[in-house]
Structure formats: C-alpha cells, structure tokens
Design brief:
alpha+beta; two-stranded antiparallel sheet
Length: 597
C-alpha cells in the first residue's frame, strides 16, 4: 500500500513565506493564531491523518458501506476513527467560538483539509459535508435554529448534508419537485426524493441534519421559487437530544466507482418536519453559501489525491529497478537502475510535483483572500478579497480537480502494471478522484460560471483583481534579468489570457454559444496562467531566502526554482494550444445538426 506523509514543509512555505501567514494573528478575531500555534495544529493534523485515517483508507474502499432496511453502516474502523477525530476537535477548527469552534483561519483549515483528502477522502466526506451545512446555517439560519443545531454540528455529535439533486434534475435545480407545506406552527412538511446525497445516512453520529431544497405552494417557477429547509433525522427532544424519528429515510445507497466508504444515498422525505432557513423563495442564496464552500473543498480534494499519488509514485520510482540509464549505468552494484533515472519517468513525476505544488499555492491564495474578506478592518480590502474569491472559486474547483485526476493517472503510469493492481493502492486514487470533476457543479458548469457570471460581474471588477496584480508584477520584473526565464513565459501566457478574455466577451455578446464553446479551454488557460504567476512569486521568495543563506534549507529553495523552471517550460506551453482552440470559435462544434452525431 502506498504510504502518505503530510507535506508540512511545503504547507509552511505557502502559509508563512509565499502569503505571509505570520500576519494572520494581526487580523481581528485571529489574535491567538500565532505561527507557533498554527504549526502545532498542522503537526497534530498530520499525525491523525497519517496514523488514524490513512491506515483505513484501502480497507474502507474494499469493504465499502452496507445498507439494510434503511440502515447504513460505515466500514470497519470508521466509527472509532470518527470518535478520535471529534475528540481531537477537528470538526470545529474553522467554526466560530460562540458555537464551540476554534475559529481557525481558512488558510490553516485548507491545509488540514488537504491532509484529510490525501489520507482518506471517503472519511473526509462526512465532516466535510457537515462543515458546509454549518456555513449555510450560520449565515442564514434563524437565531433559534443556530443555537439549537450549530453547537452539535461543530462538536461532531451531529452531522449535516446538502440535499439538492433529484432523479429528474441535477444542475437545473429550478426543476425540483420536492415540496414544503406550511403546518401553521412555523414548521413545514417536506415531501420528495433526493439522490446522490453524500453522508445522507450513516452510523457515525447520533443525528443527521439535512439541508433540503424544496418549493412552497406559492413558489414562482424556476430557481427563483426555491426555498431551503432544515430537516433533522431525529426531532430534538426537550434536552436537545435525538428524540422522535422524523419522516426521512434512506431508500438505497449507490454502488460507485470510487469513494466507496462514503455513503451516497437516495433520501426519501415523507411529510418530514422541517424549518425554513433564510427567506421564502431565497433558498439558492443560502445554498450557494454552502456550495461555494464545498466547491473550494472539492478543489482541495483534487490537490490532496494528486499529492498522495505523487508521493506513492516517487517512492516507487526510487525503489523499482528496471533498465539502465540512457547516459550510462547509475547503479553498478545492481542489475538495473531505479526507474527514476529515466527521462520519461522524471517528466511524469515533475508534472505531478509542479502542478500539485502550484495548486497548493493557489488554494493558499484563495484561502488568504477569504480570511481577509471576513476579518480585515478595511472595507475596501474586504471587497477586493471577496471579488478575488468569487473569480477564482470556479477555477479552483475545476482546474484542481482536473489536474488532480491527471496526477492520479500519472501515478498509476509510473507504477506500470503494478499500478493497475489493487494491492498497491494507486488505482484507488484514480477512482476516488474522478467524482471531484463532477459533483458540486461539473467542471463544465464551473467554466460557464466563469465566463457567464464572474467575467462580466460588476463591469469586470472581479477580473481586475487578478489582471491588475499580474500586470503590475510583470512591469516590476521587466528589468530583472535573473527572472527573465520565468517572467517571459508568464508574460506570454498572460497576453494570451487578455486576448482570449476580450474575444470571448465580444463573441459571447453576439452569440452565447460562442462563450459556451470557449468556456472550458478558457478556464484552463486562466488557471494555468494563475499557477505561472504563483510560481514566479515562489521563485522570488526562494531567491531571497538563498541570498540570505537559507538557514540550512537551501535544497528546498533550489528545488522550488527548478520545479518552477519545469512548469514554465513543460506545462505552461499548453496555453498556446488552448488559446488557438478558443480563438477558433464554436462553429466547428455547433455546426452539426442533432441527427448528424
């Protein structure tokens, strides 16, 4: 089975050097979040992920969840691991202290989430969905509901879900049929069926709190008529403990390609008692608070699985003896050299390394912006940060899950035939990673969101939050000869992005299909350019540290510079092909009649 070791050194680099995480404790509400405190949190998170969650990852995949008469049981070891997880306070780190949380910055929480996803994504789905429910309820729930339910969710005693999809509709939520009938006492009777509900039923917690999209009798047509309701599995009694069973049951669990230890359920609501969250017919506003949290978390899933696959592939490449180096024997004491000496193996490993480390930097940038948006005292800084998060959220979700899936495929390829065999653990990463490109809005939907909503929003204000810093950076580095090999490729990619942005906007105003045809390629072009910008900033930091003496850590910083060079020369050139596809327009795909396919 592939081993996992939390990449703490690289996480510290992103937090404390690339994004100056040492200043987090200067923000209101984060006064106690000193570097020493944060470092201790990451160390403890690494221990539970490496020692508790990772050992049950493969066994959980092989055993899966079981279903019988509405009861779902998680695999062996999951209940014990969840108890340890809760006792360690890991369900509460990003929640507000007033509800029992630890109030950790998003920048810290994102690093912990990555470790959980690398070590055991299926397990991470349970607390991950609960945190999404926490976010929506905390933002839009009535005070009485928050006081009753949030402390239980924060402690991990109760868990949460999001119930959106129905058998006849996925992304088009305006078509939902689940209905909510007022009962006259402030509650509602919720009736309908939801599918693909992650963590909808399980044996880890005493109660499960479902956030359900439904329509009131007087609801307008479409998405504008959707409301959000809180529906518990058990109705709390007078002591706020699970009491009478509510009218909600699990009808089945899905038999899936991956994340098999995560229960994906069909949930039937039969006159179940629920309470309105937010305003009538405004449920999408509240649900999007949860979904945007989940979209960033899903991007982290791609990063986590790609990192785990890279670690497994690298260890194997160092150990596996096969063939001789093209430039002469490197291991004369053995009959063959380790496959790490071969250029194509290095190409694969460095592609994993460059894209995953770049992805971690992108996650760090967005997480830092979230912290600034929520805690900075200057309203202008908060607005700028909110704009950047809005712009980059679809990119984080789509790009990182695409790159993560590609990295897991590369990991199997490094192993060769052994990678295809279950006992090595590498093929599980592929199967687990595949769903991340689909749920919380397929990556195609993320691309449409980017070109259709985020790009034109507020007269292009969100775009400026990215374009202006990159343009200023390029101008500042124009005379730095030592940075030319990094800055010049970024400048070329950025020029392509600017030209593509103008072309997509112009063509899209005339024919929306043109914007739709370009969307996926545009998102990847944007994302790869963003990673190139972050790699340039990484090189800046590495060069400065080396000039200072690097305090015995020179190899780390030198590796950063070399990885950045590989990214610029071997990954970023994709932007040229993407640009050509975008500029070709959509005629070649839209010119087909339906019966010509």
């Amino acid at each position: 089975m592939a081993a996992y070791k939390a990449p703490l050194r690289d996480m510290r680099f992103v937090m404390n050097e690339l994004f100056s995480g040492t200043t987090l404790h200067q923000l209101p509400g984060y006064e106690d979040m000193t570097p020493d405190v944060i470092d201790a949190v990451l160390e403890e998170a690494a221990k539970i992920c490496e020692q508790v969650l990772h050992p049950i990852n493969r066994s959980g995949d092989e055993e899966g969840c079981t279903y019988e008469n509405g009861v779902v049981r998680t695999p062996t070891g999951f209940k014990e691991a969840y108890r340890t997880f809760c006792e360690g306070g890991w369900t509460s780190i990003a929640c507000k202290p007033e509800f029992g949380g630890q109030g950790m910055p998003k920048l810290v929480n994102s690093m912990v989430e990555e470790m959980i996803c690398s070590s055991n994504l299926s397990f991470g789905m349970y607390p991950g969905l609960s945190h999404g429910a926490y976010v929506a309820l905390e933002a839009y729930g009535a005070e009485e509901l928050k006081q009753q339910y949030l402390p239980k969710i924060v402690s991990g005693e109760w868990s949460g879900t999001m119930c959106l999809t129905e058998p006849h509709c996925g992304t088009d939520l305006g078509m939902i049929r689940t209905r909510a009938e007022p009962r006259g006492d402030g509650s509602y009777a919720i009736t309908g069926t939801k599918i693909f509900i992650s963590a909808g039923e399980h044996d880890l917690t005493g109660n499960i709190i479902h956030l359900v999209l439904a329509k009131l009798p007087d609801a307008p047509e479409g998405a504008k008529g959707i409301s959000l309701f809180l529906v518990p599995k058990f109705l709390p009694d007078a002591n706020n403990e699970p009491g009478q069973r509510n009218g909600v049951m699990c009808g089945a669990i899905e038999h899936k390609m991956g994340i098999k230890a995560s229960a994906t359920c069909v949930m039937n609501f039969d006159g179940a008692t629920g309470w309105l969250v937010g305003q009538p017919h405004k449920g999408m506003q509240a649900m999007f608070a949860m979904m945007n949290t989940e979209r960033l978390a899903v991007g982290v899933q791609g990063l986590g699985l790609g990192e785990a696959s890279y670690q497994g592939a690298l260890a194997y490449a160092k150990d596996r003896l096969q063939g001789r180096s093209l430039t002469g024997t490197k291991n004369p004491e053995a009959k063959a050299d380790p496959i790490l000496v071969h250029p194509d193996v290095r190409r694969m490993l460095l592609t994993q390394k460059a894209t995953m480390e770049g992805s971690r930097a992108l996650v760090g940038w967005v997480a830092q912006a979230l912290d600034l948006a929520n805690h900075h005292p200057d309203p202008a800084v908060r607005q700028e940060s909110e704009d950047l998060v809005a712009l980059l959220t679809p990119i984080v979700k789509a790009l990182l899950t695409d790159l993560g899936y590609e990295a897991t495929n590369i990991g199997v390829q490094v192993y060769g035939g052994h990678g295809y065999i279950r006992e090595w653990g590498m093929e599980q990463y592929i199967r687990d990673a595949r769903i991340a490109q689909i749920y919380e809005g397929t990556n195609g939907i993320q691309a449409l969101d980017l070109v259709g909503r985020k790009m034109p929003a507020n007269a292009g204000r969100s775009l400026r939050r990215f374009f202006h810093p990159v343009a200023e950076y390029l101008e500042a580095k124009g005379d730095d000869d030592e940075m030319e090999e990094f800055v010049l490729p970024l400048a070329k990619a950025f020029t392509r992005l600017q030209q593509a942005t103008g072309a997509v906007a112009q063509k899209g105003m005339v024919n929306r299909d043109e914007a739709g045809a370009a969307a996926t390629d545009y998102l990847r072009l944007f994302g790869l350019t963003a990673l190139a910008y972050l790699w340039c900033r990484t090189v800046d930091v590495a060069r400065a540290r080396l000039a200072e003496g690097a305090n015995g850590d020179a190899a780390f910083y030198e590796a950063k510079i070399k990885t950045a060079r590989f990214y610029m020369q071997r990954v970023l050139p994709q932007t040229g092909a993407l640009f050509s596809c975008i500029m070709a327009g959509g005629k070649s795909m839209m010119d087909f009649a339906d019966d010509e396919f």
